């Protein structure tokens, strides 16, 4: 398996979960503010996918909000 493909399939999703869910969740536990952190996390998650086009960014924003809700309410990191 080529290194670039491995990074795209394995490493990228793991890093995204840490950056866009685990870190905001730790901040949420200390500060609160469910809505602000959820929207900010989902927006940043969508913005890093800009190269796939606007429709995909909308999808990733909505998915980011959904994943944030599931993680905070049900304790699932890999939502």
Q: TL;DR?
A:
The protein is mainly α and 79 residues long. It contains three helices and no strands.
Model description:
There is one protein chain. This protein is mainly α. It has helices spanning 3-31, 34-47, 54-74. Helix 1 (3-31) runs antiparallel to helix 2 (34-47) and helix 2 packs antiparallel against helix 3 (54-74). The protein starts with a helix and ends in a 5-residue tail after the last helix. The mean pLDDT is 86.
List keywords for this structure.
about 80 residues; mainly alpha; 3 helices; globular
Q: How many DSSP E strands? A: 0
Order of helices and strands: HHH
Distance between the termini: 27 Å
Question: How helical, in percent, are the residues?
Answer: over 70%
Q: Catalogue the unreliable spans.
A: none
Structural class: mainly alpha
Morphology: globular
Beta-strand residue percentage = under 5%
Major beta sheet, specifics?
none
Whole-number average pLDDT? 86
- Helical run tally: 3
Please compute the radius of gyration using only Cα atoms.
Answer: 13 Å
């Amino acid at each position: 398996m080529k290194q670039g493909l491995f990074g795209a399939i394995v490493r990228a999703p793991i890093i995204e979960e840490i950056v866009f869910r685990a870190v905001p969740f730790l901040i949420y536990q200390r500060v609160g503010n469910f809505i602000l952190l959820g929207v900010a996390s989902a927006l940043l998650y969508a913005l890093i996918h800009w190269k796939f086009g606007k429709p995909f960014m909308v999808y990733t924003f909505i998915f980011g909000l959904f994943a944030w809700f599931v993680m905070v309410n049900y304790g699932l990191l890999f939502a």
